[in-house]
Specification:
The complex is a heterodimer of chains A (about 240) and B (about 120). With about 240 residues, chain A is an all-alpha fold. Chain A contains 13 helices and no strands. Chain A is globular. Chain A starts with 8 loop residues before the first helix and ends with a helix. The model of chain A has no long low-confidence stretch (mean pLDDT about 85). Chain B starts with 12 loop residues before the first helix and ends with a helix. In chain B, about 45% of the residues are buried. Classes of the chains: A mainly alpha (about 240), B mainly alpha (about 120). Chains A and B meet through helix 3, helix 4, helix 5, helix 6 and helix 7 of A and helix 1, helix 2, helix 3 and helix 4 of B.
Chain lengths: ~240, ~120
Amino acid sequence: MSVSADWSWQRVALAGMRDALMLPAWIVGFGLIGIGSLARDVGYPVDVAVLSTILVWAGPSQVLFFASIAAGAAWSAILIAIAFASLRFLPMTMAILPLLRRPGQSVWQQLILAHYVAVTAWSEGLRRLPGIAPHQRVAYFLGFANTCMAVSSIGTFAGYYLLGTLPVPFAAGLLCLTPMFFLISLMGGLRHRGDAAALILGLVFAPISARFIGGGFDLIVAGLIAGSVAFLIGRKRKPA
Amino acid sequence: MTQPIAMLDGPLWPYLALMLFAVLPTEIWRWLAVGFARRLSTDSPLLEWVRAVATALLAGIVAKLIVSPPGVLATAPALVRVAALAAAAGIMFVDKRRMMLAVLAGETVLIGGVWLFAG
């Protein structure tokens, strides 16, 4: 849905909420249902599961946290694994903040905006924000991201009590929503050959890297190699 | 099971563990990015590179979730998992705006596949 430059911030935020409810919020919400059931499996209270969705706001980190506790991993290993899995937020946040930055914005406001950076809000934000007037982007982004977070909190809560009761094909279908929507969001945001190269090389390199590099470093290595090659492919396209 | 750290044990331990071992190592990168991003403009080549790496990392997570799936998703045969993603990707390839249709197609292949081959 397009946003007109003369709308009030409330109307822009509502447009963001509506765009989130059109699909993305439901996908993230369904995608995080699994977190609830993982938290229940390790005997943590339901509010820790829901808090993890609001405060961590990163599906892979949450999966790692609860699944590692279940596996009996050392706390230091959990900390390191999650730190590596979350390293992607450094480039992701750096890529989206310039779109949201306004003159006079405080560091605190930027830290709050940065907290919402996760796969969906990031890929959807990169896709939609450039078409919105700069002074309206923060309202739109917060409307969009908070709606995703609210729906996901409900999903996590529901999963804590529900997932174990579903028939296997449907439970598998819910868990598969997460990678499926990551892929769809990425494809929706492709702008040029460099982006497409990053997507394809990332898909191909990650499983190869997982086979040869251990200790939780494999994803970072695959991302750096695939991303750098894709960057060079994208640069070549432009006339000098 | 992973033991609480003795001096911090108690009913509040799950909350403390969440803050120390999940929130902190995730959030730290978002905070650091705020510090770095203030010095970059939107169209700098460095940011273009950073975006390419982030895209590749995300694609990598997709591949890993499909190759070594969590929990009950592992009951779907590998071919069904790949076919489900390919169905969704195929629709996105034809028309980028058909996100809902892409999700429905992928889910139909996956749920149907599990039903037929693993149910």
